[in-house]
Write a sequence for this structure.
């Protein structure tokens, strides 16, 4: 039996006359990066004018830039792309005010189209760029249209505690959102509006043939790495938990060929680390001792000890619990050297990065007090049924 072929919102827009014709003669902007491709990997913004008759006036680009050329938390100046026939505006520069487009940048537009591959984790910033665009578009009287794509992690399994008020940031703008949320970008945009009053309710052109239980490992849909350290769907699978390491002194594997699957630090013993983590009997994953030398980011050029995660059962695997377990194990193995990142993180310098990522300070405080792993399990729990029920009226698939 062949894999299910997905038609994303962009495919539907370019092939269905009822959708194409609505843009004819309209002045439009797009919020995209290089993941805005059709089923045949064509970059659709370059086809928009010819296929729909719309006038492409401005391209808004998110963190990492139009081509995902910049590393995380690095200002991403707009790159001129004369072949696209539109000006390019960066929505990720050195100042947090750059995250929100100005109303003047939308004043001449009739509609803004959003299409960026999301990865199904609360921390991923592209959906918050969409939220800022929704707010400005509402002020300017401009329609927002989301060209939807499947959540590569599927929409059936959700995980990780909801973000608590007071811990909002660009890696989690809205309280109540779990880490592995199970929504598509279009569904998230509607949740932003319904739950938090963001902008006007967007129009969503849904992907065709996606079912909530389907993941990127079971359907056929183009995968273009959405950011420099998200090369594969395997990376996206572990990311909801292993991204927590960004808030610690541990390397999350940036500067290796398997970011977020490899982790460690110069002071960690790989065999002791693998042994302790294996003793926790976490579902669907094995830990293999690993040494590595990152080429950039934390510990660049230094020999590190740690592990590589090997997911053995994707349905049983719980990435958020696994990431929390990794941090807990490292703190137990060497509590003198393991610790928390203290510098500013995504424009926030008053709240520790680990709290922004976890969604509260409870995890950090518990580990600082030497908690056992059973307490960590409890902190990681989510009322899955309640979350999915809350989203029931917004689900498109």
């Amino acid at each position: 039996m062949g894999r299910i072929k997905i038609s994303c919102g962009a495919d539907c827009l370019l092939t269905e006359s009822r959708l194409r014709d609505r843009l004819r003669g309209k002045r439009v902007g797009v919020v995209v990066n290089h993941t805005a491709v059709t089923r045949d990997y064509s970059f659709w913004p370059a086809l928009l004018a010819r296929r729909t008759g719309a006038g492409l006036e401005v391209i808004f680009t998110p963190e990492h830039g139009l081509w995902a050329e910049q590393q995380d938390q690095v200002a991403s100046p707009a790159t001129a792309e004369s072949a696209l026939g539109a000006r390019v505006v960066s929505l990720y520069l050195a100042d947090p005010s750059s995250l929100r487009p100005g109303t003047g940048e939308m004043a001449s537009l009739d509609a803004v189209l959003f299409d960026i591959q999301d990865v199904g984790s609360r921390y991923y910033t592209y959906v918050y760029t969409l939220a800022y665009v929704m707010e400005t578009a509402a002020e300017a009287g401009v329609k927002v249209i989301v060209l939807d794509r499947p959540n590569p992690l599927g929409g059936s399994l959700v995980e990780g505690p909801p973000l608590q008020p007071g811990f909002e940031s660009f890696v989690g703008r809205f309280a109540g959102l779990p880490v592995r949320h199970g929504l598509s970008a279009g569904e998230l945009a509607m949740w932003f509006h319904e739950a938090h009053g963001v902008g006007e309710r967007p129009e969503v052109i849904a992907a065709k043939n996606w079912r909530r239980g389907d993941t990127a490992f079971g359907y056929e849909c183009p995968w273009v790495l959405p950011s420099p350290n998200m090369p594969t769907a395997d990376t996206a699978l572990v990311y909801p938990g292993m991204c927590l390491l960004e808030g610690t002194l541990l390397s999350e594997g940036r500067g290796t060929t398997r970011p977020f699957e490899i982790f460690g630090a110069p002071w960690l013993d790989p065999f002791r680390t693998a042994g302790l983590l294996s003793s926790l009997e976490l579902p669907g994953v094995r830990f293999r001792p690993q040494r590595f030398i990152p080429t950039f980011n934390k510990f660049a050029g230094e020999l590190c000890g740690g592990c590589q995660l090997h997911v053995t059962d994707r349905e049983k695997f719980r990435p958020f619990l696994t990431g929390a377990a990794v941090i807990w194990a490292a703190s137990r193995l060497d509590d003198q050297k393991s610790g928390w990142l203290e510098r500013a993180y995504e424009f926030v310098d008053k709240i520790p990065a680990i709290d922004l990522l976890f969604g509260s300070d409870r995890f950090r405080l518990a580990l600082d007090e030497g908690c056992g792993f059973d307490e960590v399990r409890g902190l990681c729990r989510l009322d899955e049924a309640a979350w999915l029920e809350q989203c029931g009226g917004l689900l498109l698939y």
Q: What stands out?
A: The longest strand covers residues 285-292. The mean pLDDT is 96. The chain has two domains: 4-225+389-394, 233-379.
